[in-house]
């Protein structure tokens, strides 16, 4: 074997992700408020960075030609949703109680805990509401029919029992489990099977159903709500079509300081080198912010161009669109579009939405056109809202209606979309209609 040495010359290209490139990528996914915070941090470290924050928006005049930069939702408080007390009050008002019973129901409302349970014994509530124990029990039965099932329960067993009855899964074995929750808490399955007069094979599916129930149905009304921040892009309709612009009322700008005080730092050799480095960083930041704004505006304009029917007619006209389409049209990489759309809010005539919400997969359709998943979910919601409460639409009926309209979907897809929209099954909707007196 003979060994020889040789030299081979080759050329290779590689992308080095510098700190500045990482920052530029990071800027693309920042909303206006986060961008302002980032620039303020840079200004604290770099005396050559001069950040200009927008002035507080003035109140709009009665004229329709008020400043386009005024943030129309900036002065609106975020809607936190109904509290547990407000929800229970609204549900009680739908029970069509007599004036006397409605007044007595206030005692139950006062005793309602954040969990949805009653926090006081029934005899105390009866005394507070000026009623007998029998009258309190009769009224409690009516109050326990409100949604969600489990409200106004006196203990865990009653809360779960109300939900099991509502879901039509109550059975003698289920009742036995509820009467022996202590054995279940101690994981004594043999003792629980004996108490329920059944075997483990029959008991296991009942326990799976039990785990699917909510022991604190009122907790969903007490969660914190993220405040609504101002939009980053604003869409308006002009004489020549839809126009889009950055929300200047929340958009910071970067300038490079060159005043005499800063120039004094350059008198020494060390000071000059440091000042030149900081000036270069400030100029780069200025260009990076401008590039971020330009890219955001281009992506937003292309989205608006393709979703004109949605802006005009609403969610049912949301067309299918993917990131690659926008990337090819704008001339950037697909990952750039993803970063831009992840952090941006856009204000439209149909409401303020995440820019990401406009991207939906296409679904199979008859003919040359295809609908988006979001538009189909909106259509399902419309069909359920307009159905006859006495005869709610089954998933099969929704599939047939959509097929007649040109959209082919499997039944399991309709069921998945219905669950995403928090729409109960047709059986549950029929049961709720009976409870609410609609049928």
Automatic annotation (TrEMBL):
Keywords: DNA-binding, DNA-directed RNA polymerase, Nucleotidyltransferase, Sigma factor, Transcription, Transcription regulation, Transferase. Residues 82-257 form the RNA polymerase sigma factor 54 core-binding domain. The keyword Chaperone does not apply. The keyword Transcription applies. It holds the Pfam family Sigma54_AID. Residues 274-431 form the RNA polymerase sigma factor 54 DNA-binding domain. InterPro entries: RNA_pol_sigma_54, RNA_pol_sigma_54_core-bd, RNA_pol_sigma_54_DNA-bd, RpoN_core-bd_sf. Sigma factors are initiation factors that promote the attachment of RNA polymerase to specific initiation sites and are then released. Belongs to the sigma-54 factor family. This is RNA polymerase sigma-54 factor. The gene is rpoN.
């Amino acid at each position: 074997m003979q060994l020889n040495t040789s030299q081979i010359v080759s050329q290779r290209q590689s992308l080095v992700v510098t700190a500045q490139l990482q920052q530029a990528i990071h800027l693309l996914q920042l909303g206006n408020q986060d961008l302002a915070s980032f620039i303020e941090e840079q200004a604290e470290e770099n005396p050559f960075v001069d950040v200009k924050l927008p002035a507080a928006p003035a109140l709009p005049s009665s004229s329709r030609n008020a400043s386009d930069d005024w943030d129309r939702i900036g002065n609106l408080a975020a809607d936190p949703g109904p509290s547990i007390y407000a929800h229970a009050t609204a549900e009680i008002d739908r029970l069509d109680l007599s004036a006397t019973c409605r007044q007595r129901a206030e005692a139950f409302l006062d005793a309602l805990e954040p969990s949805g349970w009653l926090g006081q014994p029934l005899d105390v509530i009866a005394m507070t509401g000026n009623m007998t124990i029998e009258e309190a029990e009769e009224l409690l039965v009516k109050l326990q029919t409100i949604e969600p099932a489990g409200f106004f329960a006196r203990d865990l067993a009653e809360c779960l029992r109300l939900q099991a009855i509502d879901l039509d899964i109550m059975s003698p074995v289920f009742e036995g489990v509820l009467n022996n929750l202590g054995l279940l808490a101690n994981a004594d399955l043999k003792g629980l099977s004996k108490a329920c007069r059944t075997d483990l094979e029959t008991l296991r599916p009942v326990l799976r159903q039990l785990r699917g129930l909510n022991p604190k149905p009122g907790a969903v009304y007490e969660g914190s709500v993220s405040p609504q921040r101002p939009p980053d892009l604003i869409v308006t309709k002009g004489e020549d079509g839809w126009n889009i612009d950055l929300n200047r009322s929340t958009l910071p700008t970067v300038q490079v300081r060159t005043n005499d005080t800063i120039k004094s730092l350059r008198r020494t050799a060390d000071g000059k080198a440091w000042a030149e480095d900081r000036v270069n960083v400030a100029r780069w930041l200025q260009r990076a912010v401008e590039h971020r704004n330009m890219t955001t505006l281009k992506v937003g304009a292309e989205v608006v161009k393709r979703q004109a029917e949605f802006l005009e007619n609403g969610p049912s006209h949301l067309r299918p669109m993917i990131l690659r389409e926008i990337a090819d049209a704008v001339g950037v990489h697909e990952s750039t579009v993803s970063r831009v759309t992840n952090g941006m809010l856009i204000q439209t005539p149909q409401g303020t939405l995440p820019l990401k919400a406009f991207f939906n997969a296409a679904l199979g359709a008859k003919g040359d056109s295809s609908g988006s998943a979001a538009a189909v979910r909106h259509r399902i919601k419309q069909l359920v809202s307009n159905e006859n409460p006495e005869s709610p639409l089954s998933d099969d009926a929704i599939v047939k209606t959509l097929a007649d309209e040109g959209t082919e979907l499997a039944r399991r897809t309709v069921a998945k979309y219905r669950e995403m929209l928090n729409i109960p099954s047709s059986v549950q909707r029929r049961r709720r209609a009976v409870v609410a007196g609609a049928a």
